[in-house]
Write a structure and sequence with these properties.
Layout lengths: L1 H27 L4 E7 L4 E6 L4 E5 H6 L4 H15 L10 H4 L4 E6 L4 E6 L6 E4 H6 L15
Antiparallel strand pairs: 1-2, 2-3, 4-5, 5-6
The protein binds zinc ion.
Length: about 150
Amino acid sequence: MSALIITSVAGPGAVAVRSDDEDYAESTMDAVPIALTKHEGGRSVEIQWSDGVAQHLTARVLRDRCPCATCREKKAAAAKQSQSGVRSLNILSAAELQPLQVTGMTPAGSYAYNIAFSDGHGSGVYTLEYLRELPGTGTETSTGISTR
Ligand SMILES: [Zn+2]
């Protein structure tokens, strides 16, 4: 009898503390990529996340959202220009006329990837959190990106 009482007091208390820790860890630490697959020679990539979400991102989406300082400055300048009503023609280089491809995706630290593109640009460092929020297509599950 007394053994049973001791067990029931110690048991649920210990379990509750442990599960609180796990919830905290999950909310501050997002899923991590467990597999990266290039499709169509790099025109799109698929990220398989540890929580079961498969995120399909085109090279164009990734390139347009390059978070490096140069691209952010360019984007800010373009936004300012379109606000002022001045329109300039985009002059595309030969490389930009080719279908854009992801040529390299290498880990930068534990929580980011450095992504290189076929247009020669490769200084953007995409954090996992940032990648996860990019608009992917196809195979997200209902517990995935749309709920965040
Ligand atoms: Zn960039």
